[in-house]
Design a protein that fits this description.
Layout lengths: L2 E6 L2 E6 L10 H15 L6 E6 L4 E3 L4 H6 L3 H12 L8 E5 L2 E3 L1 H6 L4 E5 L3 E3 L13 H9 L1 H10 L3 E2 H7 L4 E3 L1 H16 L3 H16 L2 H14 L4 H11 L10
Parallel strand pairs: 2-3, 3-5, 4-6, 5-7, 6-8, 7-10
Antiparallel strand pairs: 1-2, 8-9
Helix pairs in contact: 1-3, 5-6, 9-10
Length: 254
């Protein structure tokens, strides 16, 4: 079993659970995660997803090179990359809870999340050039947008490891906490997100993701249109009224 999934209240969990390979990314694991997210996409009870690892030493050490070598065909390689990249299209917020090794494809997978929270013992690296290839699940595109071109160049071209504190200073993660506080910090963050209106969460994520992909002028227009569309929602009216009445909002996700 590569992953364990469950839903509690408005929060869904995907737990990576492949200890013998330190959660190396396989085609089957990618299918399981993508299929699960596709199911949760249409579930109105789910507002946020936490992806975490049950393996003590690692979030993920990246692509399973043994599987990649065994299935050495262009069709397999393209299917593998397309499948894992598809995870980034999920419309609801994803929190990545990271500890231990986040190497290569494991870091690329984490970069598909919306909020990245790391334990203070986490190590990050993009070592692909050292094994004769380049990143293939988005690192050459996402890393420069997250940490700047020169730092991304440094990580990818040298393959050097960076620790959690450096990752925080570079803007690669949003928080760094002691390992024994990681679960609670992630849960608290998920609860804050889950308290919001689902349709508005989806609009906010769409606007934020566009900032990575398009020029500022196009992004501002897209944000404006999404902002105006929120005024068609009952939850927008409830949010404004609750603020004016100095009470917590009661969102109905509509």
């Amino acid at each position: 079993m590569f992953i364990i999934t469950y839903v509690q209240d408005f929060i869904a969990h995907i737990q990576l659970n492949s200890p013998t390979s330190l959660n190396a990314l396989t085609l089957e694991m990618g299918k399981d995660i993508a299929s699960t997210l596709q199911t949760w996409e249409s579930n109105p009870r789910i507002k946020v997803v936490i992806i975490e690892s049950l393996v003590e030493k690692a979030f993920s050490v990246g692509i399973d090179l043994k599987e990649f070598t065994t299935n050495n065909t262009p069709e397999y390689r393209r299917n593998f990359l397309d499948l894992w990249n598809s995870i980034a299209t999920f419309s609801k917020p994803i929190i990545m809870s990271i500890h231990g090794y986040a190497f290569g494809g494991g870091l690329e997978f984490a970069l598909m999340g919306d909020v990245l929270i790391a334990a203070d013992s986490t190590m990050f690296t993009q070592p692909e050039l050292s094994v004769g290839t380049i990143p293939g699940i988005g690192a050459t595109q996402r890393l420069p947008r997250r940490i700047g071109m020169y730092r991304a160049n440094d990580m990818i071209l040298t393959g050097r490891r960076i620790d959690a504190e450096t990752a925080l200073n570079w803007g690669l993660v949003s928080q760094v906490v002691p390992l024994d506080r990681l679960h609670q910090t992630v849960t608290d963050t998920a609860n804050l997100i889950a308290a919001k209106s689902l349709p508005i969460l989806i609009k906010a994520k769409a606007a934020l993701r566009l900032a990575e992909e398009h020029p500022l002028n196009k992004g501002v227009i897209y944000e404006r249109d999404l902002f105006l569309s929120t005024f068609d929602l009952d939850d927008q009216q409830e949010g404004f009224q609750a603020f004016l009445q100095k009470r917590p909002p009661v969102f109905k996700d509509c």
